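fyi for ur records
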Amino acid sequence: MKETESSLWDREETMQETRRCVIVGAANIKNYASCKTYLAETDFYAYCDGALRHQEQLGAKPNLIVGDFDSFKATEAIAIARKYASEIITLPRAKDDTDSMYAAKIMLKRGYRQFVLIGLIGERMDHSLANIALLLYLYKHGCQVLLVDDYAEYEIIGRAGCKISDKFAYFSLLTVNGDASQINITGAKFPLTNGCINCAEQYATSNEVLKGQVAEVKVGQGELLLMRLY
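which gave:
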């Protein structure tokens, strides 16, 4: 039986779903060694504009370079793209999506469903909050996604819940998408039974996993931002 073009595309998309995309932003990274523990040679790397200054320290060649090049010289980006045979997409400076959101959307279209986000939390609070929204956006599109900075891991959790090991100093739960309810926390210093968190009452911060145990969080309704702090 001859394979049709659509079936070839479906097979390619299935293959991409099992491969991770790492989106690198331009925010400061102090602990490159820690960030590199989340990376793998088989990952697809998308660098957003000024993120290219992290490339040598991360030791990961860019597969895709995206940006309007307001924070990195376009000529230098082109030189890097030529060096590594990278795809490069130049964006207009007047646009709705951030460079990181554009990169995420294009990789979603290419079939990727696993993401690691680094270099996206920094001194600009507006940029950091926009990238937390990007985390939620990818989660809402059925992706497995983890955001990492020098101090914590971030992920969105829903009804599937999560477990947290005692290697983390603290963990916090915040709602970033309306109310979350029927929240249960076990194995932690501050347990919770059938709790509710809304945007105006963010009381589930700086919790601790009991020594030698694994904390578990379950959410009946809504989503929460989980921060595991080192």
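The chain has two domains: 20-150, 156-229. thats all i got for now
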